[in-house]
């Protein structure tokens, strides 16, 4: 289908004025174009490139750009151009060569006739632009990067677009109600449904609306164009907005993406402690991975436990043990948006499902609860997510469903063989890592020469970095824990299910081996409140951990199971020899 051409012009008044005479498709044909100055890039699509360039020349933000490239193809239509525009924006964002100047006021993921064939053309267009120096990385390198995976320019699917539009409509209503009005919204979904994408997209959309200076770039057909109009846009100017991310590693990754994104480079990415300890207030706080917010319990460090008590006392005048970090956030912000999956809490300190039940019910009653159901991460789709959760329950499936050949799920009897296969996957596809349950001591933390996980011929160390481990060079040779991978995507995951999760031979049910679970904070209970972690509690945490680990791989998951009884269960369900 490759029949495109790229017309190259200087972006100056004379060249723009001559466009109607240069090409017959510059006045009435759908095209995609790029504008850049060697440091920044803007990507657009238009039915009339000549008219659009005249508008851009009148815009002080676009006028300094120097080079114009117009991509013309006789087979292009509006749908193709919208798709190519959003694809190029995401590739530029993930490449880091140029700063992307675009807004994201309506990028949605819509299917159209012969889309897969056009995608091949997109790759040819990328190759041409890369040959001219606009990109520095390959497409696989770009798409394996955090800047791509956590990009605010992700195209929204239907569920996500509905949620974002409803949240924005609610915010407009809330802001018009005045400064005393408060609200709580919840976006809830399984792993891979794109909760983080919704949160980051909302942050960029809010920043774009607040920073809009004119309507020159507005597309009246875009999904969110109404929020940029006079009478609505002013509501968002001057708002204090923040993104709360409880997990340190994911928070740091998002900070890096925001620092590279115009409009988000000054937006705050916060820990719950940052929120609670700040003397000011927020207008809007979006909380990603809200299931990892904490209640009063021993924190990762003693200083944080002390700080938890100080913040609670400062905000509420009491040390009531029922007060949680969610209460901090609701006290500090007029409008709160939670991105939530209660099946992903993994420690006693996490706010549990029962504590979230009330706020979920209230959000539903207010019409502020937005479910995400479409699977975006795992090629096996929702069937795979349901299969994993059933496999880790006391009602295991008799066999795996047909994932349509799109997803590779295999049981590997040898840990060493699985590690070797994941290394081969990484060499071929990139971003393939070994993950494990916390069933081995972290000896290498104090002795770098020691190995933590030893299974037959396999020897591994735990992650040597707590922050951005997946992207570190050493990660290919190490094992990642729940705390380094929750919230991230991989191409392939190799998951070691340790001896902490077993089948009771007498009952045939899942049980935990408390002695083999090495996360002390994960099994010690909440001592300061006299709340123990029962075996039932611990089983829920460990099952949640393995469900998270087994839903990181977009293309496939290889599994090695230590307990013979559980391995046999996996073998029966997968039709493998075990």
TrEMBL record:
<dbReference type="Pfam" id="PF09848">
    <property type="entry name" value="SLFN-g3_helicase"/>
</dbReference>
<dbReference type="InterPro" id="IPR027417">
    <property type="entry name" value="P-loop_NTPase"/>
</dbReference>
<dbReference type="InterPro" id="IPR018647">
    <property type="entry name" value="SLFN_3-like_DNA/RNA_helicase"/>
</dbReference>
<dbReference type="InterPro" id="IPR000305">
    <property type="entry name" value="GIY-YIG_endonuc"/>
</dbReference>
<protein>
    <submittedName>
        <fullName>DUF2075 domain-containing protein</fullName>
    </submittedName>
</protein>
<feature type="domain" description="GIY-YIG">
    <location>
        <begin position="28"/>
        <end position="103"/>
    </location>
</feature>
């Amino acid at each position: 289908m490759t029949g495109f051409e790229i017309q190259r012009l200087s972006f100056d008044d004379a060249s723009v004025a001559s466009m109607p005479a240069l090409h017959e498709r510059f006045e009435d044909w759908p095209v995609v174009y790029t504008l850049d100055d060697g440091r920044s890039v803007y990507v657009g699509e238009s039915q009339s490139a000549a008219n659009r360039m005249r508008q851009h020349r009148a815009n002080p933000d676009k006028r300094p750009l120097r080079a114009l490239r117009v991509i013309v193809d006789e087979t292009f239509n509006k749908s193709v151009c919208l798709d190519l525009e959003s694809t190029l924006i995401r590739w530029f964002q993930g490449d880091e060569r140029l700063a992307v100047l675009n807004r994201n006021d309506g990028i949605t993921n819509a299917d159209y006739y012969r889309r897969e064939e056009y995608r091949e053309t997109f790759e040819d267009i990328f190759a041409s632009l890369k040959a001219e120096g606009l990109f520095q990385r390959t497409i696989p390198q770009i798409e394996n990067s955090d800047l791509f995976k956590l990009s605010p320019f992700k195209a929204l699917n239907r569920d996500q677009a509905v949620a974002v539009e409803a949240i924005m409509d609610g915010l407009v209503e809330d802001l018009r109600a005045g400064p005393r009005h408060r609200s709580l919204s919840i976006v809830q979904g399984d792993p891979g449904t794109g909760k983080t994408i919704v949160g980051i997209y909302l942050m960029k959309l809010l920043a774009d609306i607040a920073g809009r200076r004119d309507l020159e770039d507005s597309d009246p057909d875009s999904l969110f164009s109404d929020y940029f109009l006079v009478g609505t846009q002013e509501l968002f100017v001057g708002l204090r907005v923040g993104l709360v991310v409880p997990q340190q590693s994911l928070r740091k990754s998002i900070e890096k993406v925001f620092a590279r994104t115009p409009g988000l480079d000054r937006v705050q990415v916060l820990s719950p402690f940052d929120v609670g300890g700040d003397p000011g207030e927020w207008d809007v706080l979006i909380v990603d991975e809200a299931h990892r917010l904490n209640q009063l319990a021993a924190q990762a460090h003693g200083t944080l436990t002390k700080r938890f008590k100080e913040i609670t006392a400062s905000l509420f005048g009491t040390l009531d043990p029922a007060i949680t970090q969610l209460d901090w956030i609701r006290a500090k912000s007029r409008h709160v948006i939670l991105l939530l999956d209660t099946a992903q809490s993994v420690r006693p300190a996490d706010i549990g499902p029962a504590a979230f039940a009330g706020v979920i019910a209230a959000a539903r009653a207010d019409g502020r609860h937005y479910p995400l159901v479409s699977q975006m991460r795992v090629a096996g789709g929702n069937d795979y997510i349901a299969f994993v959760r059933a496999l880790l329950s006391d009602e295991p499936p008799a066999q795996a469903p047909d994932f349509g050949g799109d997803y590779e799920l295999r049981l590997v009897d040898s840990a060493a063989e699985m590690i070797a296969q994941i290394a081969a996957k990484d060499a071929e596809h990139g971003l393939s890592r070994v993950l494990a349950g916390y069933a081995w001591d972290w000896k290498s933390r104090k002795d770098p020469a020691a190995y933590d996980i030893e299974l037959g011929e396999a020897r591994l160390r735990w992650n040597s970095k707590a922050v951005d481990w997946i992207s570190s060079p050493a990660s290919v040779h190490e094992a990642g824990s729940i705390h380094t991978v929750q919230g991230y995507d991989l191409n392939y995951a190799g998951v070691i299910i340790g001896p902490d999760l077993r089948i009771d031979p007498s009952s045939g049910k899942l049980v935990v081996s408390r002695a083999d679970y090495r996360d002390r904070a994960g099994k010690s209970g909440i001592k300061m409140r006299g709340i123990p972690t029962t075996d039932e509690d611990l089983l829920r945490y460990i099952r949640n951990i393995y469900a998270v680990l087994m839903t990181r791989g977009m293309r496939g998951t290889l599994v090695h199971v230590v307990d013979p009884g559980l391995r046999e269960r996996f073998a029966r369900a997968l039709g493998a020899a075990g």
